[in-house]
């Protein structure tokens, strides 16, 4: 899982990516993102290469040289440079290295969306798509079914989203059905939403309410959470009448549950004692 990513090596590659994205146009950033994700796919298919690039018995320079020999003439120079930085560090294992490659590709995609002014839309579209999928058990099962070929599920994504969502949203949804970072479909989407928010220097607040909030109520809640956490907060709101009233807010590991359903459950528990 991505918790095992080598923060030093990944951070150096991410900094190089940010410097590149600051001066490159959307098309160049998108091309590098696709190159990185293509190399991640190569590592997924080639476990021997994955193990060799993460081998603790070889130096970082050896890893970088091996990577350059494999990728020479196949991807851009920018991509080779970024990934060489990534493999120079020591990794906990081949799986962690693969996660690092894949996450860097996602950040490149998000950087391109940011450069094109689409990042907030991409973040919201991913969340809304997750809501649509979770609200339709048959669709959720079809997208999460690992016994169905990934390409079949990606085609389903295309049928549902192409022409209705930003291209970056569609591409990220493709990664979600493939199991981004070894996660299931729903967890992958959540993680991608959070990475998109982080790219905008936002935290994510998952809000459950019994009724639709007004624009003024959303603004007040966002302002209160921003004050509490010291940064802008992106609200992801789900309307669920089953909570009866009140509100549930989750930010990271923090949960604030002021729902009527929770208070009723607590009262029922107290009466049963």
Tally of individual domains? 3
Question: Largest sheet, described in full?
Answer: 4 strands, mixed
| Strand order in the largest sheet | 2-1-3-4
Count the E strands. 4
Distance between the termini: 42 Å
Overall mean pLDDT score?
93
Beta content comes to 5-15%
| Annotation field: number of helices | 13
> Which structural category fits the helices and strands?
alpha+beta
Tell me the Rg in angstroms: 21 Å
Q: How helical, in percent, are the residues?
A: 55-70%
Could you say which overall geometry the principal axes of the C-alpha atoms support? Answer: elongated
Strand-and-helix sequence, N→C?
A: HHHHHHHHHHHEHEEEH
Low-pLDDT sequence parts? none
Brief descriptors of the model:
273 residues, alpha+beta, Glutaredoxin, 4-stranded mixed beta sheet, 13 helices, 66% helix
Detailed description of the structure:
It comes from Dactylosporangium cerinum. It is found in: Cell membrane; Membrane. It holds the Pfam family OSCP. Its main location: membrane. This is ATP synthase subunit delta. With 273 residues, the chain is α+β, with helices and mostly antiparallel strands. The chain has 3 domains: 1-117; 119-200; 202-272, Glutaredoxin (3-Layer(aba) Sandwich), CATH 3.40.30. The protein has 13 helices and 4 strands. The protein has helices at 7-23, 26-45, 47-54, 60-71, 77-88, 94-115, 119-134, 137-144, 150-161, 167-177, 185-199, 215-229, 260-272, and strands at 202-209, 232-239, 247-251, 254-257. Strands 2-1-3-4 form a 4-stranded mixed sheet, with helices on both faces. Helix 2 runs antiparallel to helix 6, helix 6 packs across helix 11 and helix 9 packs antiparallel against helix 10 (167-177). The radius of gyration is 21 Å and the shape is elongated. The mean pLDDT is 93.
């Amino acid at each position: 899982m991505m918790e095992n990513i080598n923060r030093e090596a990944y951070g150096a590659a991410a900094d190089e990516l940010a410097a590149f994205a600051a001066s490159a146009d959307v098309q160049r950033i998108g091309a590098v993102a696709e190159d990185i994700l293509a190399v991640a796919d190569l590592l997924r298919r080639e476990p021997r290469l994955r193990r060799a690039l993460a081998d603790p018995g070889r130096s970082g320079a050896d890893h970088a040289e091996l990577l350059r020999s494999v990728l020479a003439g196949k991807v851009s120079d920018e991509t080779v440079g970024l990934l060489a930085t990534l493999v120079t560090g020591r990794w906990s294992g081949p799986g962690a290295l693969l996660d690092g490659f894949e996450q860097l590709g996602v950040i490149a995609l998000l950087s391109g969306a940011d450069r094109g002014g689409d990042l907030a839309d991409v973040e919201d579209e991913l969340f809304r798509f997750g809501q649509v999928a979770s609200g339709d058990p048959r669709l959720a099962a079809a997208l999460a079914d690992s016994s169905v070929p990934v390409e079949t599920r990606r085609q389903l994504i295309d049928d549902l989203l192409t022409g209705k969502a930003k291209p970056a949203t569609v591409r990220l949804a493709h990664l979600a059905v493939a199991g981004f970072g070894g996660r299931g479909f729903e967890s992958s989407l959540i993680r991608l939403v959070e990475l998109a928010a982080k790219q905008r220097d936002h935290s994510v607040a998952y809000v459950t309410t019994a009724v639709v909030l007004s624009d003024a109520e959303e603004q007040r809640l966002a302002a209160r959470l921003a004050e509490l956490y010291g940064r802008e907060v992106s609200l992801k709101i789900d309307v669920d009448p089953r909570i009866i009233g009140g509100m549930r807010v989750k930010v990271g590991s923090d949960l604030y549950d002021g729902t009527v359903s929770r208070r009723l459950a607590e009262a029922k528990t107290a009466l049963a004692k």
